[in-house]
Specification:
It is a single chain. The protein is α/β, with parallel strands linked by helices. The protein contains eight helices and 15 strands. The strands form three sheets. Strands 3, 4, 5, 6, 7, 14 and 15 form a seven-stranded mixed β-sheet that branches. It has a six-stranded parallel β-sheet with strand order 10-9-8-11-12-13, with helices on both faces. Helix 3 packs across helix 4. The radius of gyration is 20 Å and the shape is globular. InterPro entries: ADH-like_C (IPR013149), ADH-like_N (IPR013154), ER (IPR020843), GroES-like_sf (IPR011032), NAD(P)-bd_dom_sf (IPR036291), Zn-ADH-like_protein (IPR051397). This is Zinc-binding dehydrogenase. Pfam families: ADH_N, ADH_zinc_N.
Length: 309
């Protein structure tokens, strides 16, 4: 089969080549991939650190070519959305059926391919906050793929949504259209304490966002795009003066149970137009260098989709 292979001798570190077809385990379906969406983490760290010739990629949508031998998962011909820690950037992918969601038959699989990491991370992060109806939720890094899903989902969940971005003038109108009630230039611009934070940036912004939590509030750490450490000043973790019972938590999407159900639900919302995947770049996988360069330079505020084949 054809695939994008790690090759650090070429610009961008990826090239089209051929590798043997994957052989599914009994609990895996073989999926013919139609589209994959790119995530900042996989393109910034994957080609640099993965073995030469590796097939990377987290998100993929396509059609089941061979059903799982153990009887789990959907039958042949079913459109699906899939998540795994590698193998998405290829014509065929073997994927665990508990990380595979069934997709409506008339869905745009390119749009659906944006769901796993961006939509799944946003949904699981909001689950960590608990009930958000009538509560104030801050989303940092709100113009990225996860952030845009988080803003939309938090608004649908009944939260008062505060979106943080480096350039409110450029992105404020779009973020309000997605559901943000307020758009601020970083957590320091939040006027009132919030009940929950979906933190997608890391470094000093995480520290600032934690400082904006009200008593009983939770910060869910999801993204670490700055590559900077978090240094809390003395007193930041005190529990007095309205800071009682605040917490920081994190999760690992690959170990979340019930992910197939989440992927299917999110795919249905995208297919019905209830969630906007915010695709800002789309093209064939022969243009992967162009897409990854735009993503790494922060010129893309949304999702990039590669059409496979």
């Amino acid at each position: 089969m054809r695939a994008l292979l790690v090759d650090r001798s070429v610009p961008g570190g990826l090239r089209l080549g051929t590798v043997p077809d994957p052989e599914p385990a009994p609990n895996q379906a073989l999926v013919r991939v139609t589209a994959t969406s790119l995530n900042y983490g996989e393109v910034s760290f994957g080609p640099e650190h993965a073995p030469e010739g590796a097939v990377l990629g987290w998100d993929a949508a396509g059609v089941v070519e061979r059903a799982a031998a153990d009887g789990s998962g959907p039958e042949v011909g079913t459109p699906v959305v899939t998540f795994a820690l590698d193998g998405a950037w290829a014509e065929l992918r073997a994927v665990d059926t508990d990380h595979l969601g069934v997709v409506p038959s008339d869905a745009d699989l390119g749009a659906i391919s944006t769901v796993p990491v961006a939509g799944g991370s946003a949904l699981r992060a909001l689950h960590r906050l608990g009930p958000i109806l009538g509560r104030r939720v801050l989303v940092t890094g709100a113009t990225g793929g996860v952030g845009r899903y988080a803003v939309q989902l938090a608004r649908r969940g009944g939260a008062y949504v505060v979106a943080s971005t480096g350039d409110p003038d450029a992105h404020g109108a779009d973020l309000r259209k997605q559901g943000a009630h307020e758009v601020v230039a970083g957590p320091a611009g939040v006027a009132e304490p919030v009940d929950g934070v979906i933190e997608l940036v890391g470094g000093p912004q995480l520290v600032d966002a934690y400082d904006r939590l009200a008593a009983g509030g939770t910060l869910v750490s999801v993204g670490h795009v700055t590559g900077e450490a978090e240094h809390f000043p003395f007193g930041a973790l005190f529990g007095n003066e309205g800071r009682h019972d605040r917490s920081i938590t994190s999760f690992y999407l690959a170990e979340c149970p019930g992910l197939a159900r989440d992927l299917a639900w999110l795919a249905e919302q995208v297919a019905r137009g209830e969630l906007d995947p915010q695709i800002v770049w789309r093209g064939g996988w022969d243009r992967v260098e162009e897409a990854t360069a735009a993503l790494l330079s922060r010129r893309l505020h949304g999702k990039a989709v590669l059409e496979i084949g």
